[in-house]
Amino acid sequence: MSAASQVGTFTIRPLDPLKDAELLHSWVTHPKAAYWMMQDAKLQDVEREYMAIAANEHHHAYLGFHDGEPAFLMEKYDPRYIELVGLYEPEPGDVGMHFLVAPTDTPVHGFTRAVITAVMESLFADPRTRRVVVEPDVTNNAVHALNEAVGFVPAREIDKPEKRALLSFCTRERFFNRHSLAARGVSI
């Protein structure tokens, strides 16, 4: 999948758990990735985690590139089987999502928003996807603002084994309405 934005071109490919583990390890253990909850992970832990995802038919990981350079991690999952089992009533076409932007010493204004937009475009490229579901930590205000910017609507707080999360949803229509308005320069 490839998408152009104001900050460059994004592409996404399936993650290779062994080939990409060293790169991912540097990302998920970085202090800026605290909400990823892998701060103390060893390289083998990251390999094991992403091998398990690769073996799971309901969970998929992707490596995202910005102008050809690795720049973000994206996961999509079926919330009927992963992450949210018993915590909400899934609807047909629901897809769960996580994303992590690589740490950088030279941030680019608007980059993370461009990444989440590319992630959402890739999820909605599948016509079966009707709604994207996320469950970020309730204290992660930065991601809540990003989610709202692309069209997520908070539903309620839920208790997961590892965190208190803000369950939020973004429908296909809401995302494309937001994305269309933003592309035309309309403040949202």
From TrEMBL:
Gene3D superfamilies: 3.40.630.30. Residues 13-60 form the Acyltransferase MbtK/IucB-like conserved domain. Keywords: Transferase. InterPro entries: Acyl_CoA_acyltransferase (IPR016181), Acyltransferase_MbtK/IucB-like (IPR019432). GO terms for biological process: siderophore biosynthetic process. Pathway: Siderophore biosynthesis; mycobactin biosynthesis. It comes from the Bacteria. One of its GO terms (molecular function) is N-acyltransferase activity. Acyltransferase required for the direct transfer of medium- to long-chain fatty acyl moieties from a carrier protein (MbtL) on to the epsilon-amino group of lysine residue in the mycobactin core. PANTHER family: LYSINE N-ACYLTRANSFERASE C17G9.06C-RELATED. This is Lysine N-acyltransferase MbtK. It comes from Streptomyces montanus.
